[in-house]
């Protein structure tokens, strides 16, 4: 979690004072970032509340349908189910970060470590499952049925994705702590802070964005070309879905990873020597990471509700619930003190 990493009364110059010499006549020694914290107190809780409510509703429906109603699941269905679980676990960390932005971290050092690690695990695994879905769609469209059936079991791939995300979260579990301003943040030892922090950031960018983006770009471009060449099929809807998935991924994830890349470069070369620029970087990371988080709210719409088969399951469940509700109301609405008939309830339609 990087939203809180630079919001303290920051001594980002003093932090490197032991190892470097600066001409302090050109800028302040201490950069006071009170306005950054005030912005976070307003922006982050409001945005996290919206994301939590929308994402919880959409992903809960996906998990409920795939776990309890859809018994025969394809590999894409399994990936979507894992993606929804990762998004839900990610969303459950947002209330903690909202409180952290307003009141500071009040749950202790261990919960700080666990929450930040859980955030990283589910953020990274979610991006990886998006890549898995693109690969499976590529195989389904471009390969013959005999070839598409000769793939590894999807549970092995899912385990590998989760394990990779867990390994990537270990530095967060080790180095996240509560600082002197009662903020849950990433603090490295001085003797390995610069190189280790930059390495972890670059690794997260590569595994959490660059690799999934390359896989999705290649798979979906080949899939689109294959669909265009197919005769006598309705191509417009699948192509629109593919284009929407790629555009949403780029719009939500690219700005955040560009800012993170700039942070990693600054960590190595110390390019930001101006307090105002540091403040703008802090605000930029808050806004872009929040936009990246909102992708977890859009996943159910992009990967599930656009599919005809899933909408059929939604209709079946809704009709089943509507029938059960009508039967219950018919029983409950029998008038014991009147001879008049109860009015029939309206049917539940979509």
From TrEMBL:
GO molecular function, one term: scavenger receptor activity
One GO biological process term: cell chemotaxis
Location(s) in or outside the cell: Cell membrane
Protein keywords: Cell membrane, G-protein coupled receptor, Glycoprotein, Membrane, Receptor, Transducer, Transmembrane, Transmembrane helix
Keyword Isomerase carried by entry: no
Domain of life of the native organism: Eukaryota
Entry annotated with the keyword Transmembrane: yes
CDD domains in the cross-refs: 7tmA_ACKR4_CCR11 (cd15176)
G-protein coupled receptors family 1 profile domain location: 58-303
Protein name: Atypical chemokine receptor 4
Species of origin: Nannospalax galili
Record gene name: Ackr4
